[in-house]
């Protein structure tokens, strides 16, 4: 299964010139734990250049008594961005997320434009559904066996 099949296509984005408080308000408004920082071109193409998470804000800024209004998103975002291609296989994406120690990554199309975001939660949901299907298969197999051999 490809990353593009399970990623969330509704990505909350922000410009790196915005301040941290604006990013936090966006996260709260949309009930998300991150914003993807994009560079937007004249033709409305959005290319991911960074990510800012709620954890970045709390651990790196608030816990260190940094005024969130004193910094821009660009000052605090993660520049070492892992991006996944929407055609990547999920198992390969899991390996990349694990290797980088991140829980989410922007998903891009073949032109490098933002297409979605993949979070560990999306993968867990997929695996949960697959395990549930396997449990149902086993139950069904037992029912069929009881009917054949009462």
TrEMBL record:
This is CBS domain-containing protein. Residues 7-71, 77-134 form the CBS domain. InterPro entries: CBS_dom, CBS_dom_sf, Diverse_CBS-Domain. Keywords: CBS domain. Pfam families: CBS (PF00571). SMART domains: CBS. CDD domains: CBS_pair_bact_arch. It comes from Marinobacterium nitratireducens.
């Amino acid at each position: 299964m490809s990353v593009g099949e399970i990623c969330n296509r509704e990505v909350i984005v922000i410009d790196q010139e915005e301040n941290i408080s604006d990013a936090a308000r966006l996260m709260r408004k949309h009930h998300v734990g991150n914003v993807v920082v994009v560079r937007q071109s004249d033709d409305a193409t959005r290319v991911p250049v960074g990510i800012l998470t709620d954890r970045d804000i709390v651990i790196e800024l608030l816990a260190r008594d940094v005024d969130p209004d004193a910094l821009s998103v660009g000052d605090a975002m993660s520049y070492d961005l892992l991006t996944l291609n929407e055609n990547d296989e999920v198992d390969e994406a899991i390996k990349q997320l694990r290797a980088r120690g991140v829980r989410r990554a922007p998903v891009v199309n073949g032109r490098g434009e933002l297409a979605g975001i993949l979070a560990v939660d999306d993968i867990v949901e997929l695996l949960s559904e697959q395990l549930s299907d396997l449990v149902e298969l086993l139950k069904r197999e037992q029912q069929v066996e009881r009917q054949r051999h009462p």
